[in-house]
TrEMBL record:
It comes from the Bacteria. InterPro entries: CHASE_dom, CHASE_sf, Sig_transdc_His_kinase_HWE. PROSITE patterns: CHASE (PS50839). Its EC number is 2.7.13.3. It catalyses: ATP + protein L-histidine = ADP + protein N-phospho-L-histidine. This is histidine kinase. The keyword Repressor does not apply. It comes from Bradyrhizobium forestalis. Residues 129-225 form the CHASE domain. GO terms for molecular function: ATP binding; protein histidine kinase activity.
Length: 552
C-alpha cells in the first residue's frame, strides 16, 4: 500500500510539474503574441494617421500655390478649390481665405464681402466687436471667403483674427516661417463646436517677401487623429499641447474631451506624427490587459493539466486498489480456510473433551445398584450444569467465564440460598467446566429439608486471590450452615471423586472437606495461572480473531 502511494504521488507530482510548465509556456507565448499584435496594430494606425495628415498638409500647400498673384479683396477666392476641398469629407469642416489687409484696403474689403453675399460684411474682431478703421495702423488678417457656405458659416467673413490667441499665433508663425503651420486644438466655427485643428498655408505673390494672405483648412480632431473602432485592440489619445500632462480623447460619438494622463495608467505605447510643422504625440492604451489575459489562459491550461493528472492518478489508483483488494481477499480467503481448519480441530478437541466428561458423568451416575430416580435427577442436573457452562463459553467465544456467572439459578440448585462473594474473575474454559460440576455437586447435596434447628441451610461461596503478581493463589471456600453430618445427604461416589480428585487435579491444586459444629465446609486451593490458563485464552483469541492479510 505504501509503495502504491509512492507511485501515485510520483505520477501526481510529474503531472503537476508538466501542467505548471505548460501553463508557464502558454503564459509567455500569449503575452508575447498579444504584445506583438498590439504593437503591429499601433504601427498600422500611426502610419495611417501620418498618411492622412500628410495628404491634408499637401492640400494646403497646393491650394496656396494656386494663388501667386491674388487680389486680396477679390470675392469668391476659394471657388477654384471647391472640388478639391470636398475630397476629405470625413474630417474636413471648413476652408477659408484670410487676407492680410492694409488700413487703406479695409473699405474695399468690406464692399467685396458684401458683394459676395455674406450677411455681415463689417470688419470686426474675432469676437464680433466692431473695429474702427481709423484706429488701424498695421495690416490685419481678415477672413474674406470660406467654403462650404451655410447659415452658420456665412456669418464668419469679416472677422479679424489678430486678437484670437490660437489663430493669431498660427498665422504669425506661418507668416514668419513661410510654410504650412498647424494650430493648437481649438473649437471650430463656434465656441462650443467640435474640437479640431486648423492648418494655414501662406500665399506669397511672385517677387514678394511677405504673404498676401493665408489659405486655411479646418479638420475635426476626432476623425483626423483619434479615429478608432470598437474592434480595435487599443484606444488612442493625443497629448494636449495646451496643458502639461493633459490628453485629448474621443468617445464613440466623436466628442473630444480633456483628461489628465496622471489620473489613469500609463499608455502601452506612444507614437509621434508630424503635421503643420509640429510633432504630435499619440498615446495608445490597450483595451485588454494582456498580462491578465495571459494569466487566465495559463490558469485554464494548468486547470486542464491538473484535471488530467487527477484523472490519471484516480484511474491508476482505482485499478491498483482493485488489484490490491483482490490480492488481499485471496489472502484473507486462504487465511480463513486455515483458521477454519484450526477451529474445526479445536472444536473436535473440545467436543471430545465434553463427550468424555459426559460419558464419565453418565457412567458414574448410573453405576450398578444406584437408585434410578435419584440417578436420573443427578444425571439431568449434571448435564444441565455442563450445558450451562458450554452456553456461557459460547457467548464469550471461549474466552472464559465470569466466576459469578456459574451460580445462576438455571444450573445450581438452591441458588437463592447461596451468598456469593469474591472478585468477579474470568476463569478458563477447562476450569469453568470443572467448577460448574463442582458447584452443582455441592449445591445438590445440601439439605433440602429442615435442619435439626428447623431452618433451611444457609450457604456461602467465597473466593479470594492472594499473593504477588506471578505467584497468585486462588482460594475457594464453600460452607453450608445449619447442617450436620447427620442431616446432609451423603455425597455420591461421582461427587466424592469430583470433589477430592477431579476438580483439584484439573486446577492443579488441593481440596479438603470437613464438618464443623454448625456447618459443612469444602475448600479448594489452586494456582491462579491454572485457573485463568492464559495459554488457552491466547489460543482461543487467535482462532476467534478476524483474519487480516499480511502487509506487503
Amino acid at each position: 500500500m505504501v509503495r502504491l502511494g509512492f507511485i501515485i504521488g510520483f505520477i501526481a507530482l510529474l503531472g503537476v510539474l508538466l501542467s505548471g510548465l505548460a501553463a508557464y509556456r502558454v503564459h509567455d507565448q500569449e503575452l508575447a503574441l498579444d504584445r506583438i499584435a498590439l504593437a503591429r496594430a499601433i504601427d498600422v494606425h500611426a502610419s495611417l494617421v501620418q498618411d492622412r495628415l500628410t495628404e491634408r498638409e499637401l492640400l494646403a500647400r497646393v491650394a496656396s500655390g494656386l494663388f501667386r498673384t491674388p487680389s486680396v479683396i477679390k470675392p469668391n477666392v476659394l471657388e477654384p478649390l471647391r472640388s478639391a476641398i470636398y475630397a476629405f469629407k470625413t474630417d474636413f469642416v471648413v476652408a477659408g481665405w484670410i487676407a492680410r489687409l492694409k488700413p487703406n484696403e479695409l473699405a474695399a474689403a468690406q464692399a467685396a464681402i458684401a458683394g459676395a453675399g455674406f450677411p455681415n460684411p463689417q470688419i470686426r474682431s474675432y469676437d464680433d466687436k466692431p473695429i474702427n478703421p481709423a484706429e488701424i495702423t498695421q495690416p490685419i488678417d481678415v477672413l474674406m471667403d470660406l467654403e462650404p457656405r451655410s447659415n452658420e458659416t456665412k456669418t464668419l467673413p469679416g472677422r479679424s483674427y489678430d486678437q484670437d490667441p490660437v489663430r493669431s499665433a498660427m498665422l504669425t508663425r506661418a507668416r514668419v516661417e513661410k510654410r504650412s503651420v498647424a494650430s493648437d486644438p481649438v473649437p471650430l466655427i463656434r465656441g462650443n463646436g467640435a474640437v479640431g485643428i486648423i492648418v494655414a498655408a501662406p500665399v506669397i505673390p511672385e517677387g514678394a517677401t511677405e504673404p498676401a494672405g493665408f489659405v486655411t483648412f479646418s479638420y475635426e480632431l476626432a476623425s483626423l487623429m483619434l479615429t478608432n473602432d470598437d474592434m480595435s485592440l487599443f484606444a488612442v489619445a493625443l497629448r494636449d499641447p495646451r496643458k502639461e500632462g493633459g490628453e485629448l480623447i474621443a468617445n464613440d460619438q466623436g466628442v473630444v474631451s480633456t483628461r489628465m494622463a496622471a489620473d489613469g495608467p500609463a499608455p502601452s505605447a506612444t507614437r509621434t506624427v508630424s503635421f503643420g510643422g509640429r510633432d504630435w504625440q499619440l498615446g495608445y492604451y490597450a483595451k485588454t490587459n494582456s498580462a491578465r489575459r495571459a494569466e487566465q489562459t495559463a490558469i485554464i491550461v494548468a486547470a486542464i493539466g491538473f484535471a488530467i493528472t487527477a484523472m490519471v492518478c484516480g484511474l491508476f489508483g482505482y485499478v491498483a486498489y482493485n488489484n490490491l483488494r483482490l490480492s488481499r481477499e485471496i489472502q484473507v480467503r486462504i487465511g480463513f480456510e486455515r483458521r477454519l481448519t484450526a477451529v474445526i480441530d479445536e472444536l473436535n478437541h473440545r467436543v471430545k473433551n465434553i463427550l468424555a466428561v459426559i460419558q464419565s458423568i453418565v457412567t458414574r451416575t448410573l453405576r450398578h445398584g444406584s437408585d434410578i430416580d435419584i440417578a436420573r435427577e443427578l444425571l439431568i442436573g449434571r448435564i444441565h450444569a455442563m450445558s450451562n457452562v458450554v452456553s456461557l463459553l459460547s457467548e464469550s467465544q471461549w474466552q472464559g467465564v465470569k466466576l459469578k456467572g456459574l451460580f445462576e439459578a438455571r444450573a445450581i440448585p438452591h441458588a437463592d440460598r447461596i451468598a456469593v462473594t469474591g472478585p468477579d474473575i474470568a476463569v478458563s474454559a477447562r476450569a469453568a467446566q470443572s467448577l460448574s460440576l463442582l458447584f452443582f455437586e455441592l449445591a445438590s447435596h445440601s439439605d433440602e429439608g429442615l435442619s435439626l434447628v428447623g431452618k433451611h441451610p444457609h450457604i456461602t461461596a467465597a473466593w479470594t486471590v492472594t499473593g504477588e503478581e506471578g505467584d497468585e493463589v486462588f482460594h475457594f471456600r464453600w460452607e453450608e450452615f445449619n447442617t450436620s453430618e447427620a442431616t446432609r445427604r451423603p455425597d455420591s461416589d461421582f461427587g466424592l471423586i469430583l470433589l477430592d480428585r477431579v476438580a483439584p487435579e484439573a486446577l492443579g491444586g488441593t481440596a479438603k472437606r470437613f464438618f464443623t459444629d454448625v456447618s459443612y465446609v469444602y475448600e479448594l486451593t489452586a494456582p491462579m495461572e491454572t485457573v485463568v490458563d492464559m495459554t488457552e485464552r491466547d489460543r482461543t483469541d487467535k482462532i476467534s480473531a478476524p483474519v487480516r492479510p499480511v502487509r506487503s
